[in-house]
Input
Amino acid sequence: NAGVMQNPRHLVRRRGQEARLRCSPMKGHSHVYWYRQLPEEGLKFMVYLQKENIIDESGMPKERFSAEFPKEGPNILRIQQVVRGDSAAYFCASSPGLLEQYFGPGTRLTVT
Amino acid sequence: EDQVTQSPEALRLQEGESSSLNCSYTVSGLRGLFWYRQDPGKGPEFLFTLYSAGEEKEKERLKATLTKKESFLHITAPKPEDSATYLCAVDGGAQKLVFGQGTRLTINP
Output
């Protein structure tokens, strides 16, 4: 059973561009979470999705960030008009239910 | 607001020297406390889930314990490959994990 997959692993964007981060949860997992790890900071919750529905987006910045859980294809974390402060590692996690979360390898976003 | 504090921030041990990492938490209703291991440039790797005070879990050289206010990760006779950052997180019932800052563990051969 493959683990959580994320791509790209590294992404470089110029200020003002869009970043699209993709996540494929583990097989059989319908709960998906996104976390952000800023340099020298801990992991912070961003958004929780279940079966195409956003359950909790309390950790998501109000502007420029959006999460998508399409019926087919990977989950997407979309960041529009990126700024230098968006530079961070973004981790996707999945779980089969109300249980422990399994994390992917992360996407390291650098905004120049 | 749920909070997690880990100590120490960094710990350097000699191979074979046992020690413990601390995770203090404040949560209105604990649904689970989780320990993860994170290697540089990688995602957190799940280690343990603890649900109630008094519970203990073991895996190789690691043992996690839980009280009503804190959790300990005991490492017995560590090896250099145990070097990593160990993360503690709580789920207060909202399905979102609140993480501590982590303890950076280095085991010298």
